[in-house]
Amino acid sequence: MLNRRELLKLSGAATLASFIPSSFVRAAPTVKGPFRFCLNTSTIMGQKPGLLKSIDIAAKAGYDGLELWINDINDHLAGGHSVQSLNAFIQARKLQVYNLISFTSWMVDDDDQRNAAVAQLEAEMKTAAAIGCKRIAAPPVGVEQGAPLDIQKTAERYKTILELGKKYGVMPLLEFWGASGTLYNFSQALAVAAATDHADAKILPDVYHLFRGGSGFNCLQLVNGNVIDVIHMNDYPGKPAAEQNDSDRVYPGDGIAPVKEVLHSLKKIGGTKVLSLELFNETYWKQDAMLVAKTGLQKMQYLVNEVMAGK
Fold first, then answer.
1. CA 157 to CA 101: how far, in whole Å?
2. Based on the structure, what is the number of domains in the chain?
3. What are the pLDDT digits (tens) for 266-310?
4. Does residue 151 form part of some domain?
5. Which residues pair with 235 in a beta bridge?
């Protein structure tokens, strides 16, 4: 008969679901240390639960907080709801919104497009502040795939939105995308952040993107704990990086990524680290959203317990 430890090591949600009924899957006691557990709502977006139900699922599953997508919030507000009522809904569930997922083209060369994007980002920062969120993602949206990266120009543009963020207490996290061919590697993000000469510059890494863009994982040890607040947690199967896409992401521990090494590095560099489960797996999207959320949390908790025990 499988014991609990073996169950947690089983690969794939489908396998887990076949052994563990949804009533059994619950948050295990965890020595968190510097880690906080977060649900990026992309993980269950395929089930289309809606914004409020997604928030409820995160709370009932046992997460500390959320990464919400600004488009979902805007759709909710457009439906006649207020940002104040949304904030009250989140606070009542004792959740923290750790980051907003944004897609503004703040990095592009076209001045008009970039200025419009910065104005849009400012509006999003106001929304973030209203729900107690202190961070917003700043990925390389709109930049031509494979275009050469000008470190100094990008740093100037990143510094502009960092200064904007200071007005609202909502700081943009520089995000790199492994398949972008432009800002795709941790080393590039680190160079851009350093070139801003700005105390609030931070990087938003992702286990999948570290692999997909060829960064590797030892790079995490080259920064101090102030550089990384949030990391997107996931894993990937054993096939070449160039053949993988977002939908290949699996639960942490279910692929070949050195996830425990990542967690050891994050623990070593210091500071509180938000582990945000970000998946786009269509197989998981066909399953019960609560089961997926709980399974993902349970797998992250298992890995954190191992790391905190020095394993």
1. 19
2. 1
3. 999 999 999 999 999 999 999 999 999 999 999 999 999 999 999
4. no
5. 250
